[in-house]
Specification:
Number of domains: 2
Oligomer: single chain
Largest sheet: 7 strands, mixed
Shape: globular
Bound molecules: nicotinamide-adenine-dinucleotide
Number of helices: 16
CATH topology of the largest domain: Aldehyde Dehydrogenase, Chain A, domain 1
Radius of gyration: 25 Å
Length: 543
């Protein structure tokens, strides 16, 4: 242990690059994409720092050009999970005892590498394998991940600083121990930064990790592993196990050493994981911490006093950026009739004008959805809406998967507020709108609150302050991230801690101290400088 206390300065958010025409950063990013596309790679598992091949392959494709393969990856099964559990146990011996300043130095270095030489690699990998435009990749794979790394190191320090009070002659202390065992990090396809955060947040707190990325995002996740290795992360601290959910998940959840699950993905999968843990609860060495951020049915609620142009922009950006595949994407909107008359035309015209195509052409705002299964599921909702008597498809509705999984941004006007697309998570570029009578504002707030099982993000648009106050109160539990006159997407680490409750998750707030608190188990130490030497208390004397 060092003979000093070290202090990390409060970080600032990583500035977002603009990629304007003619600038060097744009040229470099395009060159990196061309380089990645020019060769195919073979991606191993990484267990205890060793590259492991299984010969059971999955492929990394380009969703906007699905004939194009970036590489193939080895998939893990029971044997590799067993090996990874053993490797994590071995690494735990040293990592769990390493001083916080040495642990956070690794992740601060990773942030620096990502802000510099790794930035183009992670952005280009995300643009190609997850079909994101340059801006969407930049705010995810570069900026958000850098912020997660730097802010989580700082949050960890703040947790460690928190100490109990002591009375005279006594010294009380809290020690923030990592969990005994490993944490299982399970990530979704849609944000490279989420995968990075799910595995690094527990590691910052001294835990070892088994990380299973989504099969459709293995390419960028593997780049994250390379970044962490270069930053000096010791072997076995984070073990990389791509593969099918069941084949990796089942043996991992059956391990007695499972100490926690750090999950982001769909509600159904999270509930399955929770059920499995509950069923085997007597078999674990400790009670696993279960943290999950899951689905959403995020809303924009407008009042007649709202600014029409700001509302249209928020609806278009909030619903269609990254093809609506953000857990926070606006997918239902409630608009008063008087305002609808003003915004219907500009909303439809703007939506129809959105350029769609390959992210390598920077003029495209919308790119492809992630894979065939997503394409089929989203277009199923659109087809049903086209046939339904309960709604009207006002914009978009077209799709084509001949080259890539492209779906035009689609607006559905629902006649009833409980029409299927107003209720269920679609996870694609589909915005459903319910137009309500102006004089039914309060009743419609209640409908919005009660329509879907989720509680992730939502926004109120209004200029009238009393209305803002009313909506904020009425929708108090409808969203864990609530926006006033802003779109419900784009949370920034350290500024808008992210997560929702109800069916949207455990709301442990990624990008905040509250998440890190889940990855440690405190030990309280009480030391007495003057211990009593007589068992009798004063009250025992009778005279
Ligand atoms: P998904 O649930 O299909 O997959 C998530 C991960 O779980 C993948 O790695 C998958 O392979 C794994 N998995 C599947 N079955 C498993 C099992 N039995 N055991 C262990 N792991 C298993 O989700 P997705 O399609 O990748 O992502 C989209 C979903 O994620 C949406 O519902 C979205 O709302 C949600 N999401 C939520 C947030 C949030 O912060 N609330 C953020 C991003 C995405």
């Amino acid at each position: 242990m060092p003979d000093a206390y070290f202090k990390l300065e409060r970080p600032i958010n990583e500035p977002v690059r603009g990629y304007a025409p003619g600038c060097a950063e744009k040229t470099a990013l395009k060159a990196k994409m061309a380089e990645l596309k020019s060769r195919t790679v073979e991606i191993p598992l990484i267990i205890g720092g060793e590259e492991v091949a299984t010969g059971d392959f999955g492929t990394c494709i380009v969703p906007h050009d699905h004939g194009c393969e970036l590489g193939r990856f080895h998939r893990a099964g029971q044997a590799e999970v067993d090996k990874a559990v053993a490797a994590s146990q071995e690494a735990w011996e040293q990592w769990s005892r390493m001083a916080i300043e040495d642990r956070i130095a690794v992740f601060m270095r990773a942030a620096e590498l990502l802000a510099g030489p790794y930035r183009d690699l992670l952005n280009a990998a995300t643009m190609l394998n997850q079909s994101k435009n340059a801006f969407q990749a930049e705010i995810d794979a570069a900026c958000e991940f850098i912020d997660f790394l730097r802010f989580n190191c700082w949050f960890a320090q703040r947790i460690y600083e928190d100490q109990p009070i002591s009375s005279s002659g006594i010294w009380n202390r809290s020690e923030y121990r990592p969990l005994e065992g490993f944490v299982f990090a399970v990530s979704p396809f849609n944000f490279t930064s989420i995968g990075g955060n799910l595995c690094t947040a527990p590691a910052i707190m001294g835990n070892t990790v088994l990380w299973k990325p989504a099969s459709t995002a293995v390419y960028a996740s593997w780049c994250v592993m390379r970044l962490l290795k270069e930053a000096g992360l010791p072997d076995g601290v984070i073990n990389f196990l791509p593969g099918s959910g069941g084949k990796v998940g089942t043996p991992v959840l059956n391990s007695e050493h499972l100490a926690g699950v750090h999950f982001t993905g769909s509600t159904a999968v999270f509930q399955d994981i929770w059920r499995t843990i509950g069923g085997g609860i007597a078999n674990y060495r400790s009670y696993p911490r279960i943290v999950g951020e899951t689905g959403g049915k995020d809303f924009i609620f407008a009042h007649a006093s709202a600014d029409p142009q700001a509302l249209v922009t928020a609806m278009v950006r909030g619903a269609f950026e990254y093809q609506g595949q953000k857990c926070s994407a606006a997918s239902r909107a409630y608009i008063p009739r008087s305002l609808w008359e003003q915004i219907e035309k500009p909303l439809i015209e703007t939506t129809e004008s959105l350029a769609m195509g390959d992210p390598e052409d920077f003029s495209n705002f919308v790119n492809a959805v992630i894979d065939k299964a997503a394409f089929q599921s989203i277009t199923g909702y659109i087809d049903e809406a086209k046939q339904s008597k309960d709604c009207h498809v006002l914009a978009g509705g077209d799709y084509d998967d001949s080259t890539g999984y492209f779906i035009r941004p689609t607006i559905i006007r629902a006649d009833k507020p409980n029409y299927r697309t107003m209720v269920e998570e679609i996870f694609g570029p589909v915005l459903s709108v319910y137009v309500y009578p102006d004089d039914r504002f309060s009743e419609t707030l209640a409908v919005c609150d009660g329509t879907s099982p989720y509680g992730l993000t939502g926004a109120i648009f209004a200029n009238d302050r009393a209305v803002v106050v009313q909506a904020t109160a009425a929708l108090r539990h409808a969203a864990g991230n609530f926006y006033i006159n802003d779109k419900p997407t784009g949370a920034v680490v350290g500024q808008q801690p992210f997560g929702g409750s109800r069916a949207s998750g455990t709301n442990d707030k990624a990008g905040a101290m509250w998440n890190l608190v889940r990855w440690m188990t405190p030990r309280t130490l009480k030391e007495n400088f003057n211990p009593p030497t007589d068992y009798r208390y004063p009250f025992m004397g009778e005279s």
